UniProtKB/TrEMBL annotation:
Entry's Gene Ontology molecular function annotations: transferase activity
Residue intervals of the Aminoglycoside phosphotransferase domain: 13-205
Gene3D superfamilies given in the database record: 3.90.1200.10
Highest rank taxon of the organism: Bacteria
Protein name: Phosphotransferase enzyme family protein
Keywords: Transferase
Keyword Cell wall biogenesis/degradation among record annotations: no
Flavoprotein as UniProt keyword: no
InterPro entries named in the record: AGP_Transferase, Aminoglycoside_PTrfase, Kinase-like_dom_sf
Amino acid sequence: MDEVQVVVAHSERATLRVGEVFLKVDADRSRMDAEVEAMALAPVPTPRVLWHRPPALALAALPGRALGRLGEPCTSSPAAWAAAGAALRRLHDAPLPPRPGRAGRSTEELTAELDHECAWLVAQNVLPAALVTRNREVAEAALRPWTPAFTHGDLQIAHVFVDGDEVTGILDWSEAGQGDALYDLATLALGHEEHLADLLAGYGKEVDLDVLHAWWSLRSLLGIRWLLEHGFDPHMPGGEVDVLKALM
């Protein structure tokens, strides 16, 4: 008999795996509807939808394995990283989806959220003030005008599956929509800078590295409180805090 494996679980959503089926439960119906819509529109491999009955969504498992995981050494080949870059370029070049995504928040909204989180990190003694201040300065480069693209919005390295050097699918599209393409690139390469050149070679388009680094700072600063409050560890080796230290 297949066992039930808890892939991820917190107060917003949970994902379980039973054999070759993933079952996602999300308290926000609109987020799940957006995920199904984005997978239907995306010009890259995505999991097959078995059924969709809010608040649950059943997806077929993807072949292969995750490209890597944040905080762990990555053994995927340079060619696999290049293939991920090429898949991401196809997504970003596709016709825009109908709604904005997480990567499409306005500069004003991001600035207000960033300042609020930086103040909290210092007030709660989560991080040294100098570390927060320096990375807030780095993050400023991401707060600029951008051309909307079809973005995934949460393209963590564990959401890209590969078999050998081929991308077999991309998971977790609940944050997808119109947004800044560099947000996706930065999220995928977060904590794995040693593979950035291979990723960008596959992407095949010139990228402003200052903006990409800025997204590393911004995403890490915004994510630390959420991670702590949901039982995750941003201080793990190679995680968000290490990313911030590397950008000092």
